[in-house]
Structure formats: C-alpha cells, structure tokens
Amino acid sequence: MASNSFIIRFADAALQPKDLPDDRACNVRRIVGTVEMKHLLPLYRDAVLDPNPRSARVNRVTADVLRSLDTTPELFANKSKGVLLGTSNYEELQRNRFRISFEDPQIEGILDGGHNMLAMGLYMLRDLMDERSLKAIKSWDDLLEVWPKYKKELEAKKDDFTVLVPVELLIPARNDEETVDAFHSALVDICSARNNNVQLPNEAAANKKGFYDELKKQVPESVRDRTEWRPNTWEDQTEERPIKPRDLVALAWIPLNLLHSKDGLPVDLRVSPQNIYRNKGECQRLFENLMGHDQVTEKIEASHHKLIHEGVRSAFKIAGDLPELYDQIYEQFPDAYNTDNKRFRANPIVKLFDPEGRDAARRAGKDVSGYTATRPVTPFMRRDVRAKNGSKPCSYPEGLIVPLVYGLQGMMEVVKGKVRWAVSKPSEFVENHLAEITRAYQLVIEMARWDPQKIAKNPASHEFAVQQFKAAIRSNS
After folding, report:
1. What pLDDT was estimated at residue 231?
2. Rounded Cα distance, 438 and 434, in Å
3. Residue scoring higher pLDDT (204 or 170)
4. Which residues contact 70 (CB under 8 A, 6 or more apart)?
5. In the predicted model, is pLDDT for residue 229 greater than 90?
6. Range of the domain at 33
7. Residues 296 and 232 reside in one and the same domain
8. Which of 272, 294, 319 is at the close of a domain?
9. Which band of pLDDT confidence, cut at 50, 70 and 90, is reported for residue 430?
10. Shared-domain flag, residues 345 and 312
11. Could you tell me if residue 159 is inside a domain?
12. What is the dihedral of CA 365, 370, 375, 376, to 10 degrees?
C-alpha cells in the first residue's frame, strides 16, 4: 500500500453485492455505511477531489448542510447523500476498517459529495478560525489552502467530530488487471452520472418542449441516433454509453458564446468556457433559459416550442459539426503533439493500447500501468482511435483537449447576425493546421504540468486556443 494511504473506519458497513456472480459481469462492488466525521479528516488533501467534474464552492447547498449539522446532527446520516469514494487501492482490515489510497487522482478519490466535504470542513474549522477568515473560504481550493495551518489542532479535537456521515466506497469486484481496468472505466461513468443526474428531469422537460428539435436536425444521423434525447430510454445493449443531450448543449455554447459577443442574442446569456467541461448542468440551465425566451422560440402547442431566432438556428447548425470535430481532435492530438522531439505517449496519464507490449511487460515483471486493455475510442462516436507513423493508439483525459475544442470558435465568424465557418472545410483545416496550433498549445499543457483538470477549468486555456486558431487562419490567408 502506498505511503499516502490512510484508514477509514466505518461505524457500520455492508458489502454489495455480497456474493459475486459466476459470469464475471460485475466489475464494481461497494461498501456502504456510515463513518464518524473525524475519520474523514485524511480526505482533506490535494487532488482528492480531482475526479469530481464540479469544483465545490460555498453556496446554498453548503449552507443547507451546515444548517443540518447545527440543528439535527443525529439525523445527518439520513438527510445527506454523504460522500462517494472510489479506489482500486484498498486493504480490508479488522473492525470495519479499510486502508485506502488514491494512486490515480484523475479517476480515484471523491467522486461525489464535494459540497458535503466542503461544508463539513467549514464546520470543523469554525471554532478554530475567526468569523472573517472563515467567511473568506469560498471554495474547496480555499479550504485546502488554510487546512495545513490547523491540521494539528483539528487532530487534537477530532473526538468532537462524531457526527455520522453516509459513505459509499467503490472497489473493484476482483483484483485481476482486466477487472481493475474495467473498474477504472466504470468510475468515470459513475462519477459523471452521480454529478449530473440532477439534470435528468430538466432534460426530459427540455425534450418535451421541443428545445432540442433543431439540434436533432443539425447533428449527423450517426450522432442523433446515439443520443438519449429522452432520459432512461437507451436500450442498445451493445452500446452502454449513449450521447447525452447536455453533451451537445455544452458544445452548442461555443458558437452561441460567439453570437453573444457580437450582440446576436436577444438575452444576455453566455457560458464560461470552462463550464463546457466541468459544469454541463449550468450549460443545460442557461440553454433552457435561452430557448424559453419569446424572441428565440414561440409556443405552438400547450407544451411545445418552435425555434424562430435565425441567429440561434445558425449556431445550432455549427454545433452539428462539432461532435465529429471533437473526435477528430481527440484522435489526432497525440500525433500533432509529437513534434519538436515531444513525446505525448510517454506521459504517465496517457494509456497505450498495445496488447503485445503489455503482455511482454507483465511477463517481465514490469509496471503495466501505462497500458490499457481496452481499445481506445473517440468520445462521441466511439470509433476506434487510429494512430499515425507506427504509433500505438492511446487514451487520455479529455481535459487535455477541451480548450482546443473550444478554440474551434476561432474558425467561426458572425455575419449579419448569423454564425458561420470562416473556412470552407473545417475538418480539412484542422487536419492541416492542428500540428502548428498544438506547438503553441504545448505551453498550456506544460505550464499546468499535464493536469487535465487545471487545463480544462482555466478560462485562459480556452481563450489561448481560440487565438491560435485565428492565427492559423491569418497565416493561411
């Protein structure tokens, strides 16, 4: 077990499923129970919240959690969703104790419950800090910045923190490499679902109101057929990961933001570039506000709307091209990065698909964490990733390239209130210029030390990419 391991002691715990099916279809098990708050102190550390797509901030949710802790601490375990953890690095000890560590902070750690963790951190600090300093903590990052200063004091008074917190710990069903690989893939999906399931009723309502109708027309048939426009209706047994409407809505804000910047929207709405990656729920909410505006749609039935704003229609037409361009960038980026003696696939967060190399490394007793047993596929169309010049296909966190996808806005222009491509063949332009754009973009990756969360959540990364696409157009003219 790694040196950064720590022990979580459950007051009570149940393993689910208790017995594994013989067909090996189960890759994830969970330990469900309650934990005294004091035993969560080791979770207040850097990177532990990285798998969570939303950065926790002080808001109404944290205020409600603090109120529950103050007024009904004995009911907190029943009123709160608690904390969801996931790791493949665990050891079961005696008396409901588990030694765990998070070896891959991009995947393992706190998958859901960041706002609960933030609120509990504030709750434990409040007797140690003056009110003004406590109120200055506005986010999880702010909390971690001051946490080390009070770590010894918190440890000394930890026996005061006995409130029971619901905790769910996800672990691999088995310890073989194939299962652990499948478990890691599942964690990504579980994290996304847990953080976005609150949007499902909103998406169902948006679909019923006809807000997606124009997007359905503009995206390619292959994208339209793989999108779960109506929640919980996906029945394709061969494809477990349909496209969600919010994924397309998030991309649609790339041309919509450009339209907004040119005063082309009848309402003052825009999405922060980083939220296209980290907060698709916000993208969905603002999309519904836009589509509900009487200058954007008109009601033609009791609950159905028709798009009437031509500028928004033009943005959706552009949005229809973006899933395939997203896949193209994801597939071609590794080879585009491999210029000027740069080695994209040598980075630890990149996983090679090389079954023969993986087997040889395993036989030699070498580390195989740099390999994946699953064939890499593109994010939207789930097409097998191809590689050039004898390179091996690879998978990597999408956060590395999300700003480049947003950078496609640099290939767009607004003419007479409508968005259009500023180049005749966007896919061909990306093919011809991605390498030169990536040479400049390497600075963004290296300054963030290859941290996909920092890259994708920094608005400056997105604006930098926009400028590089604009520069490529100027150099090509």
Report:
1. 65
2. 6
3. 170
4. none
5. no
6. 6-175
7. yes
8. 319
9. very high
10. no
11. yes
12. 180
Distance CA 187, CA 12 (A): 24
Q: How far apart are CA 189 and CA 374, in angstroms?
A: 15
Which two structure tokens, joined as six digits, stand for 2?
Answer: 């790694």
pLDDT for residue 340 is more than 70? no
Residue 162, domain member (yes or no): yes
Q: Is-contact 132 72, C-beta < 8 A?
A: no
Rounded Cα–Cα distance for residues 469 and 472 (Å): 5
Domain assignment of residue 1, yes or no:
no
Quick one: which of 460, 465, 464, 321 has its CA closest to 407? 465
What's the number of domains the chain is made of?
3
The token duo for 101 is 């560590």
Q: Do the bridges between strand 109-112 and strand 351-352 make them parallel or antiparallel, or are there none, so unpaired?
A: unpaired
Q: Is the pLDDT of residue 46 over 80?
A: no
Query: Based on the number of CB atoms within 10 Å of its own CB, is 469 exposed (0-12), middle (13-18) or buried (19 or more)?
Result: buried
Residue 3 has pLDDT above 60, yes or no: no
Assess whether 225 and 86 both reside in one domain.
no
Under the banding of pLDDT at 50, 70 and 90, the label for residue 241 is confident
**Distance from C-alpha of 438 to C-alpha of 465, rounded to nearest angstrom:** 9
CA distance 28 to 174: 8
Tokens of 13: 């715990």
Same domain, 22 and 164: yes
Residues 415/418/422/426 CA torsion (nearest 10 deg): -170
